[in-house]
Design goal:
elongated; 2 helices; Pectate Lyase C-like; mainly beta; single chain; 2 domains
């Protein structure tokens, strides 16, 4: 492989080849390349583009990925522990069971992506954008969504204890059967969110939030009351 400023397509590079390209200081574009199981930890891949690549079980631990983009990649069970993805993007593709523990996701955009079972423990996510993302069964403790606008994000059965949803708008999102212990919802707009599985005894968790009449009726229905 050479490091010309052109896309690298349909290749199966080694770590040494990726490292050689990165040392030239110019961002690269990898198209339909197979990096499955490759250890790319600690490399500087700033501004790199990964387009329709196979990243299954690849390791980007501690890598510099500022402004990097991942488009329609197959990245199940990959690892980004401690990686810096600031200002980057993930669009489409499958990142199920991926480990983002301690990663920097500041101003990252995640769109139309499957992230079932993803671990975002201790991730730094200020300005994170989520739209059309499947985050069912994900691990998201203490993550801050404050003042965000979340669109069509499925958090079903996720571990979200101590998350911050203050002043957040959840548009067509699902919190069904999620662990919401000690979350904060002051001024959150939950009117179009799926709150299935929430019992009246748990409703105190939504203190200060705005809910719809139908949601209130579902909760009060547990007492045999009807809202007209």
């Amino acid at each position: 492989m050479t490091s010309e400023n052109i896309p690298f397509t349909d290749l199966t590079p080694s770590r040494a080849e990726i490292e050689h390209i990165s040392q030239d200081g110019e961002p690269a574009t990898l198209v339909n390349c197979d990096l499955e199981g490759l250890d790319l930890s600690q490399l500087d891949l700033t501004d790199w583009c990964f387009d329709r690549c196979n990243l299954k079980r690849a390791s980007f631990n501690g890598a510099r990925l500022e402004a990097a983009s991942f488009t329609e990649c197959r990245a199940a069970a990959s690892s980004f522990v401690g990686a810096d993805l600031q200002d980057g993007s993930i669009e489409g593709g499958d990142f199920s069971n991926t480990n983002f523990h301690g990663a920097t996701l500041t101003a990252v955009s995640i769109l139309r992506c499957k992230m079932t079972g993803t671990d975002l423990t201790e991730a730094k996510a200020i300005g994170l954008k989520l739209e059309d993302v499947l985050l069912a069964l994900a691990i998201l403790p203490k993550l801050s969504f404050r003042k965000m606008a979340l669109k069509r994000v499925d958090f079903s059965e996720s571990d979200m204890k101590r998350c911050d949803f203050r002043d957040t708008v959840l548009e067509d999102c699902s919190l069904r059967d999620a662990n919401l212990a000690d979350c904060r919802f002051e001024n959150a707009d939950l009117r179009s969110a799926d709150l299935g599985g929430v019992e009246l005894t748990d409703a105190r968790r939504f203190k200060g939030a705005v809910i719809s009449k139908s949601q209130a009726a579902d909760l009060l229905g547990q007492l045999g009351l009807r809202v007209l």
